[in-house]
Specification:
With 143 residues, the chain is α+β, with helices and mostly antiparallel strands. The protein has one domain: GMP Synthetase, Chain A, domain 3. The protein is 51% helix and 16% strand. It has five helices and three strands; from the N terminus they run βαααββαα. Strands 1-3-2 form a three-stranded antiparallel beta sheet, covered by helices on one side. The longest helix is centred in the C-terminal third of the chain and has 34 residues.
């Protein structure tokens, strides 16, 4: 009998949230994390340069008192695949953050739109008054 071990290149991550964030965002349970990670499966595979057919992952959720977190192991069943670049790491992080904080980001974007519209309105009024004074020869940049 010959023992021939097969070695895969594994990637290991820990995703952590503060307790208050996990509770507020709904990531204080295994089901929420599972749904998130399943939805990001192809994002992981693409950025790890793994054909989705060969991509495998396992995760374990730990509901710690001050920092709920999930451990993830991911790899390819094809020994010739799997390479993670700095860009790939950024893309994976960005995808996860955008999903986890999507409601908060939508609120912030809405607030930015309100502030931008207010600034446009106020600016338009100020410019309109200046133009009106210029047309009546009541405005000088030298006084």
């Amino acid at each position: 009998m010959v023992f021939m071990p097969i070695f895969y290149l594994h990637f290991y991550w820990i995703l952590v949230l503060r307790r208050e964030d996990a509770t507020r965002l709904g990531y204080d349970n295994a089901a929420a994390w599972q749904t998130l990670l399943q939805s990001k499966r192809n994002v992981f595979a693409k950025n790890m340069k793994i054909n989705p057919v060969n991509f495998r992952w396992y995760a374990a959720f730990h509901n710690e008192s001050h920092h709920p977190h999930v451990h993830i192991i991911a790899y390819s069943t094809n020994l010739n695949e799997a390479y993670l670049t700095k860009k790939g790491i950024r893309e994976i992080k960005s995808s996860l953050v955008n999903s986890v904080f999507s409601n908060e980001m939508a609120f912030i974007k809405n607030e930015q739109t309100v502030q931008r519209n207010t600034l446009r309105s106020v600016s338009a009024e100020v410019v309109s008054k200046i133009v009106e004074r210029i047309n009546l020869n009541e405005y000088s940049i030298f006084t």
